[in-house]
């Protein structure tokens, strides 16, 4: 429940969650958008504005490594965070305005942790998450409450379906003088 001033959108309230990386989460309606029907470019622009605003207005902390204390992106949701058998939809905009084709494993992990922390789901209640861009589905559930440093945390299980998108073949030529690698001094 962090209030952030987003240029072009005004004050919004975001949640910051960690599931392998940090994300800002908010209902797309706060930005005047619908995660299920708005144009992807509009969602990407709004999410990127949120990411930049959070980076400028809030300092993240990671209990084990300050190298991990950065906001990777923003996940816009349909706002359906309370437990339901119905899927909840989101779009993950990360890094340099990239859009995940899936609901995002680390994002689903963080979103489940937030829902659990807010009392919106219980342990072992499985939620289904849908990507607004492709319709792909992941499921997730909090399976164990724990601590991470001074923070309340949960162990989360996420599952989905994946497909091969390609293969690679690496060839080493016998006469290559660097075939075994090299070190910088």
Automatic annotation (TrEMBL):
It is an enzyme of class 4 (lyase). GO terms for molecular function: trans-L-3-hydroxyproline dehydratase activity. Signal peptide: none annotated. Keywords: Lyase. It catalyses: trans-3-hydroxy-L-proline = 1-pyrroline-2-carboxylate + H2O. Pfam families: Pro_racemase (PF05544). SUPFAM superfamilies: Diaminopimelate epimerase-like. Its EC number is 4.2.1.77. InterPro entries: Pro_racemase_fam (IPR008794). Belongs to the proline racemase family. Homodimer. This is trans-L-3-hydroxyproline dehydratase. It comes from Phalacrocorax carbo.
